[in-house]
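Quiz preparation item.
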């Protein structure tokens, strides 16, 4: 918990290593959250805001460590938040290259060394400030003291090790307390090379890398874009005028008529209530009066009409596929009744009438 609280501390200092770890972790965590919760904008936005707050406080402590002031306090956090918002609200993979901009800007703070008076502070995990992190230091000391050392000549080896540790500690402090020569510091040298006379070239190169990355990623995403599936071609037969022309009508006892198409598909027609629409049911669209979607015999055998239309506002005509003609005729001959469009029809006496017609008799199985 103290380690977490130290991330939001305003008055402490961060050395270079701690600052670099915080910056990298904030950027990587945002990218991971964006990938894991791609469809949840709120979660991605929360991770971006939280990361920018952590970066802001770490930048403040890093500047305090280097005894610097100015606009660099806001640049790393603001650039990170702006880049993250662009990636969140403009959902394009190529924009993830923008994450390099806040990383590059934040890395400039690593080129400033800690000042001598801050170096004398006792850093714990790269932090020195009001949040007490000594618990982590005590654990390390306890781990070192838990080792059992052998006695040589009656001398307790842990005491020797502790004395040597204290000597090395003071020698290390004396070495660190020496004034830092800025010309020999690697960060100072890098900043002088990149942001001195060559600052324009450095910024141009960084911008070129980001733009080139965005362009290349955009081109690759276009090439890998999945092809749109071709529209499905309907397998239902087209009902042209020739297919709907009726031949060989036979009037059956219960006031309905059988007819055949040019392809030997069966029509069932009857007079009923007056309706305005021309098409009552159509298999191709699956729309219309659902009671007309099935022809049901009294043995629960069903057949689906291709379409049901109305002529002269009162004559229903149901057309069936030629593939169903033998089975439909067989049920008309041997069953007792059927239902279609909510109307019940008796089949009494149909066998004798159909048996006299060669056109229909030859279709019986």
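Solution:
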């Amino acid at each position: 918990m103290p380690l977490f609280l130290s991330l939001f501390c305003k008055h402490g200092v961060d050395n270079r290593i701690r600052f670099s770890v915080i910056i990298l972790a904030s950027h990587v965590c945002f990218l991971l959250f964006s990938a894991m919760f791609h469809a949840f904008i709120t979660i991605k936005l929360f991770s971006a805001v939280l990361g920018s707050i952590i970066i802001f406080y770490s930048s403040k402590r890093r500047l305090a460590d280097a005894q610097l002031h100015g606009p660099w306090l806001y640049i790393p956090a603001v650039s990170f938040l702006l880049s993250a918002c662009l990636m969140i609200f403009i959902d394009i993979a190529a924009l993830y290259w923008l994450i390099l901009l806040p990383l590059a800007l934040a890395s400039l703070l690593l080129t400033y060394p800690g000042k001598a008076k801050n170096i004398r502070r006792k850093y714990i995990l790269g932090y020195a400030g009001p949040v007490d992190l000594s618990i982590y230091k005590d654990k390390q000391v306890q781990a070192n003291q838990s080792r059992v050392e052998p006695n040589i000549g009656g001398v307790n080896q842990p005491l020797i090790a502790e004395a040597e540790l204290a000597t090395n500690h003071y020698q290390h402090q004396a070495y660190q307390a020496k004034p830092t020569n800025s010309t020999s510091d690697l960060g100072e040298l890098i900043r002088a090379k990149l942001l001195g006379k060559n600052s324009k070239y450095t910024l141009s190169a960084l911008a070129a890398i980001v733009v080139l990355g965005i362009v290349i990623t955009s081109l690759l995403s276009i090439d890998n874009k999945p092809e749109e599936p071709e529209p499905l071609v309907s397998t239902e037969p087209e009902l042209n005028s020739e297919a709907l022309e009726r031949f060989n009508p036979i009037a059956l006892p219960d006031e309905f008529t059988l007819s055949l198409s040019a392809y030997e598909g069966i029509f069932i027609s009857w007079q009923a209530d007056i309706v305005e629409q021309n098409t009552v049911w159509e298999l191709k669209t699956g729309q219309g009066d659902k009671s007309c979607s099935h022809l049901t015999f009294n043995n629960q055998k069903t057949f689906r009409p291709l379409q049901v239309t109305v002529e002269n506002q009162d004559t229903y005509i149901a057309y069936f596929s030629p593939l169903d003609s033998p089975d439909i005729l067989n049920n008309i001959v041997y069953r007792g009744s059927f239902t279609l469009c909510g109307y019940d029809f008796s089949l009494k006496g149909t066998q004798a009438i159909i048996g006299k017609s060669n056109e229909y008799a030859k279709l019986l199985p």
